[in-house]
């Protein structure tokens, strides 16, 4: 994992941006009215304020919300002795915390056992999630909340050093957003560890995705306000042993993700998967597929395009393919399919020196029953490398 260096210039920008009257609001976990005290603090906070959570376990029955710009919500840590927001007794089905304001920092606390999503932000630009834990402590269950960390419809998103376990959809999910960095985080025992959906310009790097159903997903789906997901880099991650049986509720798109998937790219454009370490993913280390479900969105493009897979380290893979016909294909190939699986639709450039299996389905209207699997050796000249994501000055200063 990397260490982020705070420049003097960034520090000066952060100080200059703080209102002169900014104050710290200390809130204690003690007392039967802890839920009300914390929500009141979030309502009364003004731009530049810090809401400081005391150490201890907060027994909460209602979700929390924040809609004030430039507020920090900070705890005393994510583990024992830290600030633990426990929603085991939550009465509603909503998220634990909903943020709808800009320039917010969420840092150093844990959210446990929400009935809905863990922490959601919507339309919250320049939001930073740092040193957080979101967990369903009973482990993988269909009744768990769908998403752990869940920013959507936002610009400039930084998710740094978070831990998520047990989400019944995606542990770390970023949807319909632009300019995103997800780094130095751990996603385990979720259906999807990390998911980038209908997003433009994202870097996903230096994360560990392990023991999920699928490690890292890059999707583009129809019938959403923002479509045409593109320019996503997935690099320097460890994606291993994604072996948890799929426990998503029926009808969710991730309910179709095969157990044992490392990285899955579906219907996206300009995606680079490079310098990752893959190991023990039973279906495939990397899957590249089109969107093969009924849809009537005339603006939607269902094919993967310009997908580049290069310079990855591939360990054991393909020994338990969990898609229809996969076991039979593996048996015919000596017990395992190659580490890279492509349905044959769209275009891909795979430069890793490993086996590739194409299902020979050239377009998304061809049913999988007509698949004619064949080992292939892809190659070609990749397009120019995508640039690194640059976040607005001052966001990096918040994680130091």
Write up what this structure looks like.
The protein is mostly beta strands and 400 residues long. The chain has a domain at 136-387. It contains three helices and 32 strands. The protein has a 20-stranded parallel β-sheet that branches. A twelve-stranded mixed β-sheet has the order 4-7-9-11-14-17-20-23-26-29-31-32. The model is unreliable at 1-18 (pLDDT under 50). This is Parallel beta-helix repeat-containing protein. Residues 93-219 form the Right handed beta helix domain. It comes from Sphingopyxis terrae subsp. ummariensis. Keywords: Signal.
Short key terms for the protein model shown above:
elongated; 400 residues; disordered N terminus; 20-stranded parallel β-sheet; signal; PbH1; Pectin_lyase_fold/virulence; mainly beta; 3 helices; Beta_helix
Brief characterization of the structure:
The protein is mainly β and 400 residues long. It contains three helices and 32 strands.
* Shape, per Cα inertia axes: elongated
Task: Give the number of DSSP strands.
Answer: 32
| Discrete helix count | 3
Rg from Cα: 21 Å
Q: Please outline the major beta sheet.
A: 20 strands, parallel
Helix content: under 10%
Mean pLDDT: 94
Blueprint (SSEs and pairs):
Elements: H1 8-17, E1 24-27, H2 34-44, E2 50-53, E3 56-59, E4 64-66, E5 72-74, E6 83-86, E7 97-99, E8 105-112, E9 119-122, E10 127-135, E11 147-152, E12 155-160, E13 163-165, E14 170-175, E15 178-183, E16 186-188, E17 192-197, E18 200-205, E19 208-210, E20 214-219, E21 230-235, E22 238-240, E23 261-266, E24 269-274, E25 277-279, E26 284-289, E27 305-310, E28 313-314, H3 326-332, E29 340-342, E30 348-350, E31 356-358, E32 374-376
Parallel strand pairs: 1-2, 2-5, 3-6, 4-7, 5-8, 6-8, 7-9, 8-10, 9-11, 10-12, 10-13, 11-14, 12-15, 13-16, 14-17, 15-18, 16-19, 17-20, 18-21, 19-22, 20-23, 21-24, 22-25, 23-26, 24-27, 25-28, 26-29, 27-30, 29-31
Antiparallel strand pairs: 31-32
């Amino acid at each position: 994992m990397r260490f982020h260096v705070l420049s003097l210039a960034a520090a000066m920008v952060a100080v200059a941006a703080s209102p002169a009257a900014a104050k710290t609001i200390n809130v204690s976990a003690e007392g039967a009215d802890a839920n009300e005290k914390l929500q009141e603090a979030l309502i009364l906070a003004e731009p530049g304020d810090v809401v400081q959570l005391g150490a201890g376990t907060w027994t909460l029955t209602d979700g929390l919300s924040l809609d004030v710009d430039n507020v920090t919500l900070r705890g005393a840590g994510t583990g024992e002795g830290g600030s633990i927001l426990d929603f085991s007794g939550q009465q509603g089905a909503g998220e634990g915390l909903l943020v709808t304001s800009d320039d917010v920092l969420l840092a150093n606390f844990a959210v446990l056992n929400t009935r809905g999503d863990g922490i959601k932000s919507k339309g919250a630009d320049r939001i930073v999630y740092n040193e957080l834990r979101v967990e369903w402590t009973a482990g993988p269950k269909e009744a768990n909340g769908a998403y752990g960390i869940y920013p959507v419809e936002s610009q400039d998103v930084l998710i740094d050093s978070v831990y998520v376990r047990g989400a019944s959809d995606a542990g770390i999910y970023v949807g319909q957003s632009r300019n995103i960095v997800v780094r130095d985080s751990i996603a385990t025992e979720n259906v999807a560890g990390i998911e980038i959906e209908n997003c433009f310009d994202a870097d996903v790097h230096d994360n560990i995705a392990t023991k999920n159903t699928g490690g890292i997903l890059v999707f583009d789906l129809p019938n959403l306000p923002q479509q045409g997901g593109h320019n996503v880099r997935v690099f320097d991650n460890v994606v291993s042993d994604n072996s948890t049986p799929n426990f998503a509720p029926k009808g969710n798109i991730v309910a179709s993700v095969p157990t044992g998937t490392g990285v899955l790219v579906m219907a996206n454009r300009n995606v680079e998967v490079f310098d990752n370490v893959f190991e023990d993913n039973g279906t495939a280390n990397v899957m590249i597929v089109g969107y093969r479900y009924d849809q009537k969105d005339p603006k939607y493009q269902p094919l993967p395009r310009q997908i580049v897979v290069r310079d990855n380290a591939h360990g054991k893979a393909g020994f338990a393919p969990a898609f229809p016909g996969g076991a039979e294909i593996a048996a015919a190939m000596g017990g395992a399919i190659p580490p890279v699986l492509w349905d044959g639709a769209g275009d891909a450039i795979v430069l890793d020196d490993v086996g590739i299996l194409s299902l020979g389905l050239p377009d998304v209207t061809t049913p999988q029953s007509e698949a004619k699997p064949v080992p292939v050796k892809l190659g070609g000249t990749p397009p120019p490398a995508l640039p690194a994501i640059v976040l607005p000055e001052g966001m990096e200063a918040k994680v130091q």
